[in-house]
């Protein structure tokens, strides 16, 4: 079929799925070690919980720092090569973790290998996910950007959800080398699949924008994303402690309801971004998320906490693709990878800051306060998006006039 012809819905989904496998491999590699590595560092290597947490955080900060660069490389060399490099780095992280497990009797050597592997995984994550998303956008065209970003998100959260418990099982059966070997194997398989897949080239019709200009264009939408991400951060990180402080049971079910709201919203309403525009949809989503967080803060029993988590998940679900559509729309085809990487970095930054900032607030004002604070921040995000929407409509009316 010629590239310019309009594909059917089934063809669109097939094309997107053909590159989303790299996102799935990437985030399964991220999820597998999460529940196991801290215990290995603390109990087997003998380091403090702080060091164990630092080893985990190395990956997040590596992802944050490398996000913009991954987008620029994808624009310059094409998403296929960036995905291949990302798969190599993810695989290397697994190989280094295997060696670290074999060297566990030499604690410092093992720790340094783990740290290097986490850095490789963080950079591999940004390269693989950004490259795969841009590859999908090139395969189906800019008009389907929202669909590509939405499916990419589903692959991300599904892989993370199954990765952590599967990593625990593999660790019980085979030790650290169990999940680390799987990560190495997925990196190799992903590299081979990406190498054998045809690349898509976009003809250069305009010069690429400098990074400073891309950051200026994308940052309002990235800031809205960062504020919306806080709701996800405080639920994922602190919901278990919140339930414990209230004397409640069922935190796992509340997390499941959050995930259910997220996934259902992605599948049922992602088409609304194309129909109504990213700003309108993200505004409604942020309001829904804020209501959910307010319910969590004010919940007097588990039922209301569950409803709040469900609404928070449903609301946050479309914030990333809705604002992402608007962000990449502001740049030319030659700079979309840079825009996507820069935009995604705001999510990484928000997740990286949520833990320590919420922890400080919790120590000062109690754990309930973090949900009120997150709700207020999400409301500020809604105000920001509302302002962008008003500005956009005024510009549209001015253009018509």
Structural key phrases:
single chain; 401 residues; mainly alpha; Growth Hormone, Chain: A; cell membrane
Description:
With 401 residues, the chain is mainly α. The chain folds into 2 domains: 9-196, Up-down Bundle (Growth Hormone, Chain: A); 211-400, MFS general substrate transporter like domains (Growth Hormone, Chain: A, Up-down Bundle), CATH 1.20.1250. Helix content is 85%, strand content 0%. The chain is built from 15 helices and no strands. The protein has helices at 9-31, 37-44, 49-77, 79-102, 107-140, 145-174, 176-196, 211-246, 251-269, 271-276, 278-298, 302-317, 319-329, 336-365, 368-400. Helix 3 packs antiparallel against helix 4, helix 4 (79-102) runs antiparallel to helix 7 (176-196) and helix 11 runs antiparallel to helix 13. The mean pLDDT is 85.
The tally of helices reads 15
Anisotropy-based shape: globular
Q: What is the share of helical residues?
A: over 70%
Strand content: under 5%
Contiguous low-pLDDT stretches (5 residues minimum) are: none
Q: What's the CATH architecture name of the largest domain?
A: Up-down Bundle
Elements, N to C (H/E): HHHHHHHHHHHHHHH
How far apart are the first and last residues' alpha carbons, in Å? Answer: 41 Å
- Count of spatially separate domains: 2
**Category by helix and strand content:** mainly alpha
Subcellular location: Cell inner membrane; Cell membrane
Family: Belongs to the major facilitator superfamily. YhhS family.
Main location: membrane
Transmembrane segments: 12-35, 41-61, 82-102, 108-127, 148-167, 173-194, 214-242, 248-269, 276-297, 303-325, 337-358, 370-390
């Amino acid at each position: 079929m010629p590239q310019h012809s309009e594909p059917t819905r089934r063809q669109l989904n097939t094309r997107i799925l053909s590159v989303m496998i790299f996102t799935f491999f990437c985030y399964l590699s991220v999820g597998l070690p999460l529940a196991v590595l801290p215990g290995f560092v603390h109990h087997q290597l003998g380091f403090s919980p702080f060091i164990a947490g630092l080893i985990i955080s190395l990956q997040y900060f590596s992802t944050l720092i490398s996000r913009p660069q991954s987008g620029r490389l994808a624009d310059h060399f094409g998403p296929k090569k960036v995905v291949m490099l990302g798969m190599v780095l993810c695989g290397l992280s697994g190989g280094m973790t295997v060696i670290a497990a074999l060297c566990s009797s030499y604690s410092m050597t093992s720790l340094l290998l783990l740290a290097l592997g986490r850095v490789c995984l963080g950079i591999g994550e940004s390269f693989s996910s950004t490259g795969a998303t841009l590859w999908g956008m090139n395969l189906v065209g800019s008009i389907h950007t929202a669909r590509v970003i939405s499916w990419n998100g589903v692959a991300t959260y599904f892989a993370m959800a199954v990765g952590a418990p599967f990593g625990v099982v593999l660790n019980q059966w085979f030790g650290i080398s169990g999940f680390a070997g799987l990560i190495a194997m997925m990196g190799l398989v992903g590299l081979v699949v990406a190498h054998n897949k045809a690349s898509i080239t976009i003809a250069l019709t305009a010069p690429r924008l400098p990074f400073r200009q891309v950051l200026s264009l994308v940052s309002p939408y990235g800031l809205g994303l960062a504020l919306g991400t806080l709701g996800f951060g405080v639920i994922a990180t602190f919901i278990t402690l919140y339930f414990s402080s209230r004397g409640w049971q069922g935190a796992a079910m509340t997390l499941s309801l959050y995930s259910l709201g997220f996934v259902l919203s992605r599948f049922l309403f992602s088409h609304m971004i194309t129909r109504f525009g990213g700003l309108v949809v993200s505004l409604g989503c942020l309001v829904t998320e804020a209501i959910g967080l307010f319910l969590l803060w004010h919940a007097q029993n588990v039922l209301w906490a569950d409803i709040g988590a469900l609404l928070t998940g449903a609301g946050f679900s479309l914030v990333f693709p809705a604002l992402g559509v608007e962000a990449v729309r502001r740049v030319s085809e030659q700079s979309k990878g840079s825009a996507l990487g820069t935009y995604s970095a705001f999510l990484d930054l928000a997740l990286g800051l949520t833990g320590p900032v919420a922890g400080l607030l919790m120590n000062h004002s109690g754990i309930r306060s973090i949900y009120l604070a997150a709700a207020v921040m999400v409301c500020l995000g809604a105000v920001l998006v509302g302002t962008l929407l008003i500005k956009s409509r005024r510009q549209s009316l001015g253009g018509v006039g």
